[in-house]
Amino acid sequence: MKLQGRIETHQLLLALALVLGFAAYCGTSTFEFVHDDRAQIVHNPIVKSWQYVPRYFTEHVWEAIVPGTIGNYYRPVFLLWLRFNDALFGLRVSAWHWTSLLCHLAVTLLVYFLGVRLLRDRFDAAVATLIFAVHPVHLDSVAWISGITDPLMTLFFVAAFLCYLESRQAAALCLYAAAILTKEPALVFPGLVFIYEWMFAETEAPRLARFRRAVLKSVPFVIVSGLYLIQRVRVIGAIGHSVTSASLSTVLFTWPGVFWLYAKLLLWPAVVNPFHATEYVTRPGWGNFALPLLAMIAIADVIYLLSRRFENRVVAFASAWLILPMVPLLDLRVLPMAEFVHDRYLYLSSIGFAIMAALAIKLAPRQILLPLSLTLAMALTVGTVLESSVYANDLLYYSRGVSVEQENRELAVNFANVLTEHGRYDEAIGVYTRVLARSPYYWSANYNLGRAYFFSGKLDLAEVYLKRAVTMNAGLGAQLLLGGTYIKEHRLDEAAAVLRDGIERHPDAPEYHFTLGLVLKLQNDLPGALEQFKAETAIQPDPVSTAQIAEISGKLQH
């Protein structure tokens, strides 16, 4: 009777985990494309057609979006996910959110099966699953469409580990390959295989025999990792490119603060942020180094005590699952300044945390285990729902970001860009001006300030900042917009000159030939205008250019 009651309880908790997981995130279906979603989905040419699929395996993620840039993200399976969603749903943003949620729920179900294998108790496994399903730290991965890299990678990762446990080697290898081609932290998989074999398999065997077995079991996955790294180096030119010049000592001094911030996000997720105010620690002191280090030592002691109370191997392996996925992120130099801590980086690691949390809850008196688990789950669910609105649109997303990282100039410019899109030009101009007061040669602020002046009709000021942006080689948009400024001021010769220079620099850039065609048409150079409109259609066929070609051809024939 007790056994039957226990089975019913774990089934109830598993069902509740899936229901609450759905309830916590279903509101995201009304959210918009946010932040990188626009570049990676809305305006990304290579996710719009199947013909580009081979490029997914020969380019980094941002190559088609910002050609010529150095990239650290080689993620072909992620691009395939974007392509499938685009083929099925186009730009129906709600559908993209639904597929992200379904992926998270699929991971949640796999976490339960993993918990059963590790904890050997279905009730404990269900409690761990419940915590994982609704933890607010997952908002960055589920509520933000581009954050799908972590749930998708984790789906393949956990499925691969379960197949490995079931001795389905071929399936495990294929799923692991899919995981590392989705996101880089999956590379820790062979390490987890080694640790599992060392801790769980044939525990009575001599240590040397256990070590050999663990090595042999992990070798096939190491080989897959090696093949991946070879291809990664071929594509991006290195295993990873440093994007900041921080010294090794600075990185080491920064680690305790990073780990302490991650610990707080897992243990007390009171406020979730898309961004965190993080800085390199160049001079270690009490607050930025010693205190976080002591806090991490205290947490390690708690984990040790937990291992003494329960089976040591389970706690040790859960700790490995928590910490190991963070290892690829420890070289902070491959991540942009002030961007080396994000909630989404904890998605895979949080499985280990959920397992240890379930064991910690088990320390409570037996009669309150279920009420305690349900209360915790409801509190986490409410926190997730309340904090999710940050991801509803760019205005909320960036306003939260700048409130946290007030010195982050990229965030400030992104926030001002959204204000510009909403016609709030004075507010946007104020933000750009404050950024330029700190960083006068920051090209993005110069270009976007010129753009804000252009759209607000202050053409004289637009010209000043767009010229600065062009001088800084700010990309295609600055010269095109500067040409547009000259057109509005009826300075057609200057407009033609700046547009011709832009075409010479970037002959295949869209809109340049079209805009130059309009200038030549205004100057009554119809043959020249016709040539430019035809050049535009060769780059990107569109009905406006076609109509201009028909109109001018008709005039020339008469």
What labels would you give this structure?
single chain; 558 residues; mainly alpha; Serine Threonine Protein Phosphatase 5, Tetratricopeptide repeat; 69% helix
Tell me what the structure shows.
It is a single chain. The chain is 69% helix and 0% strand. The protein is mainly alpha-helical and 558 residues long. Helix 5 runs parallel beside helix 8 and helix 21 packs antiparallel against helix 22. The N and C termini lie far apart (96 Å). The N terminus is likely disordered.
Show the helix and strand layout.
Blueprint: H1 2-25, H2 36-42, H3 53-56, H4 76-89, H5 93-119, H6 122-134, H7 139-142, H8 149-165, H9 169-180, H10 189-200, H11 207-236, H12 248-267, H13 286-309, H14 312-323, H15 349-361, H16 369-387, H17 394-404, H18 409-421, H19 425-438, H20 443-455, H21 459-471, H22 476-488, H23 492-505, H24 512-522, H25 526-539, H26 543-557
Helix pairs in contact: 1-5, 1-6, 1-16, 5-6, 5-8, 6-15, 6-16, 8-9, 9-11, 10-11, 10-14, 12-13, 13-14, 14-15, 17-18, 18-19, 18-20, 19-20, 20-21, 20-22, 21-22, 22-23, 22-24, 23-24, 24-25, 25-26
